[in-house]
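Hi Y.,

Following your request, here is the sequence exactly as I used it, all 183 residues.
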Amino acid sequence: MLAGSLEFPDAPPARHDAAWTPETQIANMLELCSAQMESALQDSDHAVEALIQAFSTVAESARTLQSISAQLPPEVRAAITQALDKQLETLALQIGSAVVSFQFYDKLTQRLGHVRYSLSSLAQFVCDRAQSCEQDQWRRMLNALRRLYRTEEERRIFQMMTEGLSVDLEPPPPVRTGEVELF
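Below is the corresponding structure, written out as tokens. Let me know if you'd prefer a different format.
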């Protein structure tokens, strides 16, 4: 073992050939982070697809119940209308809340996609010593990445980081049910 280096028992043996460079190692680790993010996003997409299907079924069932209720004889409908309407209203509120949550999930996946692209771009960039040693090339790369960010929060974080400021994130505002905003 080299002085000051670490050995990890489960790690593959370190390569010491002409192709090995610190830049290549950094790029490989950035690509690993990107691949892990993509895998996690794919897993979560499958789960969200199942949830969307479940909520679509619940919404359709609620519409069917309303239709059935409207067809009941007046004397039966009068007896159950208030209780049924209350339950249908609760279902509608919960479905609305689920839609808002899905929108936040969509925003999250978009932002993680931007991070993945940034990691991949950085991985390619650091492997090219001619580019990565030029301040003007860094400026160009940062400008290209800046265009990715769509939300105010993404742009603010990017601006703070490029200015060398520490980023203290505020907790997100609470989600209010009944409000639907497209991102």
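DSSP finds five helices and no strands in the chain.

Thanks again,
Q.
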